[in-house]
């Protein structure tokens, strides 16, 4: 090892798992090196983990190559091991050495430290991670409010209302740490922006949900913070604004690469618009302009500045094991061992073994990254990680990739070749091609629905299949991929809505200008009388249309996902004729009216369709206008009934059981029929639930558009069937997540009861418990007698899928009180007390 | 203004009661059947006089017999949840209107010859079944709304739990009271407030209700201290909760009571019919 005045072979910046491992390996190889750490201790990220935190060692199938040991265990044990082993290896460590600038070129870099000293090195390994640059809360933070971005010791806080924002691993672990000891008396709430825990480890999610089930922690999904004040936090939830007491906010919303510092390494600067800016083509380049993009690297981790290597989280690998392997590998590369393959090589080799052409893993990865649009901005390293959780499959020409109505929530991308979509189920010869580089199957990913069409390989094709979790992770970490998937799904939704005769070229202008917007519950999207000219498509959720009559909002219409609105003002240039607001938290696609108009001009058939739709709407508007004098109570009643239905989840329902209580005699034949149609257990509770104006919403599945129950099903057993029914298949493991996630309490956990004696034996011989669900005691006695242990599984309505005649509850109602309605019909049900 | 998502086909959304099912389809069929039977009766050349034993009488008798057997199968249909495109509502609708048409068909079948015999017994039983059914239609049309109003949004279990909660509060609140007063509360709590005969249930009158009696006693005392006021208040709540449950039980009883006539009378009718048919063929 050379002295500090001399020049070392490699300077390693950052002593996290990656840097430590690199230093240890350099020491072991006798390569002169220095490990620069900006704090006064090693591995600051792990050091900052909360006390006693259990550190996991995933992915478990990956071998560890590093000279340091690492296994799942407590934070303290791991840090001790590393400190000891690094000392034993006699690595050269420099603490309190924050690098502020890197200059020079390969063979002689000059690293300037904050304390004024300099270090010279032939090569630089950047292993600074991303923790120094946490994502900040974006909502307004009031004076006196406590917001922190890390949690050192969860035992420090007592009797506090603490809100953890972000349900990644860090957030979940913090929240569980704070709530672990009931003696501390903390009220802990964890908030997640989406419905799924896409970025967290499965074990963490399960532990969190278990704690929620015990009532020790509050989990809020589909929620964001909209304001943080002293002692209070305001949430924006699916159902509107919620206020809660809050003494402390811990924000764990991930972190982004410390880009400015990295980009400036060895860069040349120029004056641009009066500011010092990096000259193009110099410094370390990133894959894209996105805030969360990573540096562009070669497979040997070399950045666009020769001699500077980037490893670890900054390279896009957040897991400890990956980081440590990379630390080992980068030293090997520097030592000239360029033929070394990454540790995950054998896993990928096996995955790609069946592909034709006998190419190497690197060649395949390069091909995927080049050809597949959504992967183009990923670094090779990110691509490697993605492929570890995905599959690459080869299909012969004509081979079926998936069949219509297959369950499946994975997304595909065509790496080579093309596929044909059978758009007409009756005539397989009618197909639409999807070309190389594009994706398909994204509907399954977004909605969990069954496959909508059979897809075949049109020629010999290599397709990548991303599992639901891998795909969600891809969308969460690669904004370019998210944008690409968004674009394709908007285009396909428009094509489906506006019907045949349109091509994706026709829609190009509209899709280009489309913006996806999230709307809070109750947020106004269009204001009556306003002059704006945008057209909207509802992607998720639903909206209500209202007209102001004498200062009173009168309910006009309810629109579920898949509808469009706002075209009226665009077509005839008038002002907005009604107010549209979201019924529940919704997502709409906004596109400019003039682009829509141009599309209509090009496509007379579409214009015709739009005008027909418009005429019907205008009739209703005119009807409301003309009767406004005599409206009064009837209109109020109508509005309120509609509001009641929205409040009770019909806003997100696709098919719901309603009971008209002016007809219901309470015979419970619906429940009995339900039990007799499904293994002897009823999936509905007629009497429970809310009632308004004699319209009763029993406890029974609403088959939500975006089912809450689907969010966290470990075996992915909850699916959507061809008729829109949400059902649980036989792979259910009985964990109870869905039961906890359902806001309407329609899922029960129970064991399938033994078979009952038949109807005639009951009628004439009095055998068995008779029609309907047998009493608990009968079921228990029978089950014990049979001696078989039957596990409890989740049970919910499947809309009598596969039973001829349809839902048994409706068929078995003797008086016509039980009806099933979908969003398109529920208005007419709300009009029981007819307005006219 | 907007366009709905395409409607899904084949969803059973016909929102109408069993009485108006498919625009009174079965009412029309029943009326036509009655008119046809009446016209046939007027024009059939039966000698010496209209009689159950004539060819026309046999025709009507066979129709009536088949109808009765089919009508009585509603009980099986209701309980056998088989697959298929049937709806119990359609069955109920047909049951009601075809059942009523029997009044005309079976009466014409008798040829207005009634007497004290097994044949007239069958006829009388049938009319009893129909009369109880008429009562059933009336209560089915009128009472569900009252049932719904009375229960608010409470389920049976919630009502019982609410009563149990009140009882626990009463028990605790009555501790500081004088012996005599607390005895009254204990007496009210010990009593099974729902034990009553059929008549009491149907008329919703519970003269022996000790909660009501205890309330009356408290009301006589014009100077209640804080403990007594609290107990009196709880007793009021208990009385109100009892009233809701009892009203619910009354309505359910009114909705169900006719079945205790309708079903046994149907079984008896099937027996009498068998005797009627067998005897006719035997002694012909």
The gist of it:
With 836 residues, chain A is an alpha+beta fold. Chain A is 29% helix and 25% strand. In chain A, helix 1 (17-29) runs parallel beside helix 7.
Beta-strand content of chain B? under 5%
Biggest sheet record of chain A: 7 strands, mixed
Largest sheet of chain B: none
Largest interface summary: A-B, 73 and 45 residues
* Helix residue percentage of chain A: 25-40%
- Give the tally of structural domains of chain B: 2
Question: How many structural domains are formed by the residues of chain A?
Answer: 5
Quaternary class: heterodimer
How many individual β-strands of chain B?
1
CATH topology of the largest domain in chain A: FAD/NAD(P)-binding domain
The fourth-level CATH homologous superfamily of the largest domain in chain A is FAD/NAD(P)-binding domain
Distance between the termini of chain A: 93 Å
Tally of contiguous helical segments of chain B: 11
Strand content of chain A: 15-25%
What is the CATH class designation of the largest domain in chain A? Alpha Beta
Report the span from N to C terminus of chain B. Answer: 77 Å
Structure, explained:
The complex is a heterodimer of chains A (836) and B (284). Chain A has 836 residues and is an alpha+beta fold. Chain A folds into 5 domains: 7-133 and 257-343, 3-Layer(bba) Sandwich (FAD/NAD(P)-binding domain); 147-251, FAD/NAD(P)-binding domain; 347-480, Sandwich (Jelly Rolls); 509-626, Sandwich (Jelly Rolls); 641-752 and 790-833, Alpha-Beta Plaits (2-Layer Sandwich). Chain A contains 24 helices and 43 strands. In chain A, strands 1, 2, 5, 6, 7, 8 and 19 form a 7-stranded mixed β-sheet that branches. Chain B is mainly α. Chain B folds into 2 domains: 21-79 and 86-143 and 258-282, no CATH class; 156-256, no CATH class. In chain B, 73% of the residues lie in helices and 1% in strands. Chain B is built from 11 helices and 1 strand. Chain B is elongated, with a radius of gyration of 28 Å. The termini of chain B are far apart. Mean pLDDT of chain B is 89; it is low at 1-13. At the A-B interface, strand 32, strand 33, helix 17, helix 19 and strand 37 of A face strand 1, helix 3, helix 4 and helix 5 of B.
